[in-house]
Design goal:
Elements lengths: L1 H24 L2 H17 L3 H5 L1 H19 L4 H8 L3 H16 L3 H26 L25 H18 L4 H22 L2 H17 L3 H20 L2 H14 L21 H16 L10 H4 L21 H9 L1 H27 L7 H14 L11 H16 L8
Helix pairs in contact: 1-2, 1-7, 2-6, 4-5, 6-18, 7-8, 7-9, 8-9, 8-10, 8-17, 8-18, 9-10, 9-11, 10-17, 13-15, 15-16, 16-17, 17-18
C-alpha cells in the first residue's frame, strides 16, 4: 500500500509539471490530468482538509449548488449541466496543487525549469513567426500579421497564456533560496521575455493586464530604482516593437482608440452610436445583453454556459436592436450575473476583494512600516490572483476548460502559502 501510494504521488507530481506544457497542445490532456488527479486526491483525502479549509469549502459549495440549480432551471438543462456539475474538478485540483507543493517543496525548482523552457521556446517561435510570417511548424500569422499564435496554431491565446504563466515563473524564482542579485536580474529577464511575447501576440487585454501586473509589482518592491531602470529599457523595446510595425500599431493602438470611441468613426467600423464604448462597440453590446438577461433572471440566471442559447431572444434585445451574439459576454462578472444569478456573482466579488485586501495588507506593512520585510513569492501570487479576477477587462468563458486550467494554477499556489493568510 505504501508503494502504491508513492506511485499515486508520483503521478500527481508529473501531471502537475506537465500541465503548463499540455495547455499548449489544448485543454484535453490537461483536463484528463486534472480529473484523474482529483480522483486520486479524493482517494488520499485527509480529514484535515475538511476542517482546515471549511470556510473555503462552504463558500464553494454554495457557489456550486447555485450553478447546478441554475442549470436545472434553464431551457437547456443537459447542455448547461455539463458545465456546472463537473466544475468541481477545478476546485479539487486547487487542493491538489497545495498538497503537492507542501509535500514536495523541491517541485518548485523543477517547475521553474519547465516554465523557463516554455517561455524561451515561445519567445523564439513567436519571433520567427513575427519575422517570416510562419512559426517553426509552418503555422502562419493571422490577419495580415496583426495576430500571432505561435504553437497554438489558430487559437489566439498566446498572450493570455503567457500572462498567466510568467508570474508563476517569478514566484518560483523568488521562492527558491538564491542570490538576491540573481533573482533581480532573472526577474527582469522574465518580464522582458513575457512582455515581448504578449506585444507580438497582438492580444490587447493581456497587454493591458501585463502593465497592471507590472505596476502592482513595482508599488511593493523595495528595489524600485533597479526595476524602474530596467523596466524603462524593457518598455522602450516594447514601444519600439509597436511603433515600428504597422500591423502591430494598427491592432494595438489605432484599433483600440477607434473601438473605445476616442476618435471619429473610420471606414469599415459600423458603430451604432457616438461616444465612449465599454471596451468596444461589440463588447458593450454583449455586456448590455448580459445585464438584460440578469434583469429577467435575477436569482438563478439563464444557466451556466447558456448565454449563447439566449442572447438572440426577443426579451433580451435592447432598444429594439438585435445584439451580435457570442458564446459568452466576455466578462467574468457579467457572465456569472447573466448565467448563474446574483449569489455566485457576489461570491466572486467577495473573493476578489479578499485577494485585494491581502495586497493592501502588504502595502501597509511594506510602504508604511519600512521595517517590515515582504515575501516576494507570496505577493506575486496575490497580484496574479488579482489579474485573474480583474473586473475591468474582457475575459474568456468562465466555464471554459482552458480558462479554468490557467486560473487554478494561481489559486493552488496561493493556497499552498496559506500559513501567511489569516482569512484562509
Amino acid at each position: 500500500m505504501i508503494k502504491f501510494d508513492n506511485y499515486l504521488d508520483l503521478f500527481l507530481r508529473l501531471g502537475f509539471l506537465f500541465l503548463p506544457i499540455g495547455l499548449i497542445a489544448g485543454p484535453a490532456i490537461p483536463d484528463f490530468i486534472i480529473i484523474l488527479s482529483s480522483i486520486i486526491f479524493i482517494f488520499k483525502l485527509n480529514k484535515k482538509y475538511l476542517t482546515e479549509y471549511k470556510l473555503i469549502i462552504s463558500f464553494f459549495l454554495i457557489f456550486y449548488t447555485f450553478n447546478i440549480f441554475s442549470s436545472l432551471l434553464s431551457d437547456n438543462v443537459l447542455f448547461s449541466l455539463k458545465s456546472s456539475i463537473f466544475y468541481i474538478r477545478f476546485f479539487i485540483y486547487v487542493f491538489v496543487i497545495s498538497y503537492i507543493v507542501e509535500k514536495t517543496p523541491g517541485i518548485i525548482k523543477q517547475l521553474l525549469y519547465v516554465l523557463s523552457i516554455i517561455l524561451t521556446l515561445l519567445l523564439i517561435d513567436t519571433l520567427i513567426q513575427f519575422i517570416i510570417g510562419k512559426n517553426i511548424f509552418g503555422y502562419p500569422a493571422a490577419d495580415n500579421g496583426h495576430r500571432l499564435a505561435s504553437f497554438f496554431k489558430d487559437e489566439y491565446i498566446l498572450g493570455s497564456y503567457t500572462l498567466k504563466i510568467f508570474p508563476l515563473a517569478l514566484f518560483c524564482l523568488q521562492f527558491l533560496n538564491l542570490n538576491q542579485r540573481l533573482k533581480n536580474y532573472s526577474s527582469v529577464l522574465i518580464f522582458g521575455i513575457s512582455g515581448i511575447i504578449i506585444i507580438l501576440s497582438g492580444d490587447r487585454a493581456p497587454l493591458y493586464l501585463f502593465f497592471i501586473f507590472c505596476l502592482l509589482f513595482l508599488i511593493l518592491t523595495d528595489n524600485k530604482k533597479f526595476y524602474i531602470f530596467f523596466g524603462s529599457i524593457v518598455c522602450t523595446i516594447l514601444i519600439f516593437f509597436i511603433l515600428t510595425n504597422q500591423p502591430l500599431k494598427k491592432r494595438i493602438i489605432d484599433q483600440t482608440i477607434i473601438e473605445l470611441g476616442l476618435t471619429e468613426k473610420k471606414a469599415g467600423y459600423n458603430f451604432e452610436k457616438n461616444g465612449i464604448f465599454i471596451f468596444s462597440p461589440h463588447h458593450e453590446k454583449l455586456i448590455s445583453t448580459g445585464f438584460n438577461m440578469w434583469k429577467k433572471n435575477k436569482y438563478f440566471g439563464v444557466g451556466p454556459n447558456n448565454f449563447r442559447n439566449n442572447c438572440e431572444k426577443i426579451t433580451y434585445k435592447d432598444g429594439g436592436e438585435i445584439f451580435r451574439c457570442n458564446n459568452h459576454p466576455h466578462n467574468l462578472y457579467v457572465q456569472l450575473l447573466s448565467e448563474t444569478g446574483i449569489i455566485p456573482f457576489v461570491i466572486l466579488v467577495l473573493l476578489f476583494f479578499v485577494i485585494v485586501s491581502y495586497y493592501v495588507k502588504y502595502f501597509i506593512l511594506f510602504n508604511i512600516n519600512k521595517k517590515s520585510s515582504i515575501d516576494y513569492s507570496e505577493f506575486i501570487l496575490i497580484i496574479l490572483a488579482i489579474i485573474n479576477l480583474w473586473p475591468l477587462t474582457t475575459n474568456g468563458n468562465f466555464f471554459n476548460n482552458y480558462l479554468n486550467l490557467q486560473m487554478i494554477l494561481a489559486f493552488g499556489f496561493l493556497l499552498s502559502q496559506k500559513k501567511n493568510f489569516k482569512y484562509i
